[in-house]
Specification:
alpha+beta, four-stranded antiparallel sheet, 17% helix
Length: 241
């Protein structure tokens, strides 16, 4: 006896309105997940200057982790500091306290809350002890008070400097080419938003493409990287901090 063929019941066809509604809902959830990741877990950053050479180079593209440091609503200035605090000599990403409208800064946390920091004899001194630094480029020197800005503006020589509570003294690794806490004071904990975890791309394309608002130049830099792969610093890709 032949088995009877079981015919599957045809699915009801969706109307165009139902298809559009499904598509909108799907993209809504994709967008929501992106916003949650972007606001609370990680974001991308690009290095626009040489202040962190040779640890970070101009054109290095970073993945920044916000986990434990900060949570916020993407594309807004609203954010909340979380429970983690930077360790000494850890690279941090923060909003410059002297002008929060500027792009985020990337420096290294050198002095911690309550420390007394001083600079002399070509080195950094923390609580009277010389800090061992193997990552710096150029001589470490004090700053002329005439160049002070932000919280230090108009003050006489501030060194040695007692770092206030909930504040961090941040410096670039390229000590002769870094606008950092030596000029404008410490970084409040509430302005620290994360730390880099990975270099996912590095392009040798000069400084202009990575400046704010240079969308066309940035597009051309990426296009040039495709046409001329030699501009990609391949050995730096996927470096983990």
């Amino acid at each position: 006896m032949k088995a009877e063929k079981v015919q599957s019941k045809p699915q009801d066809k969706l109307t165009m309105e139902q298809k559009v509604r499904r598509e909108i809902i799907a993209w809504f959830w994709v967008g929501l997940v992106f916003l949650l990741i972007n606001g609370a877990i990680g974001q991308a950053r690009v290095i626009p200057s040489g202040s962190m050479e040779s640890t970070l180079l101009i054109g290095d593209h970073l993945i920044m982790s916000r986990v434990g440091y900060d949570a916020g609503i993407p594309f807004t200035g609203w954010h909340v500091p979380l429970w983690r605090n930077p360790k000494r000599q850890q690279i941090i990403i923060f909003k410059p306290p002297f002008d929060l409208s500027q792009p985020d800064y990337v420096k290294r946390a050198i002095g911690l809350p309550g420390d007394t920091i001083d600079i002399h004899d070509g080195a950094v001194w923390i609580n009277g002890e010389r800090l061992v630094e193997t990552y710096t480029l150029g001589k470490t020197e004090r700053v002329d008070p005439g160049l002070y800005a932000g919280a230090f503006a108009g003050m006489p020589q501030v060194m040695p400097y007692k770092i206030p509570e909930n504040c961090y003294f941040a410096m670039g690794d390229n000590r002769q080419n870094s606008f950092d806490s030596r000029f404008w004071g410490c970084v409040p904990r509430k302005d620290i938003i994360g730390t880099p975890v990975l270099i996912y791309m590095s392009l040798n394309a000069g400084t202009e493409p990575w400046q704010p608002g240079k969308i066309g130049e940035r597009f051309l830099a990426y296009l040039n990287g495709i046409i001329h792969p030699g501009t990609v610093r391949w050995r730096r890709l996927f470096h983990v901090f």
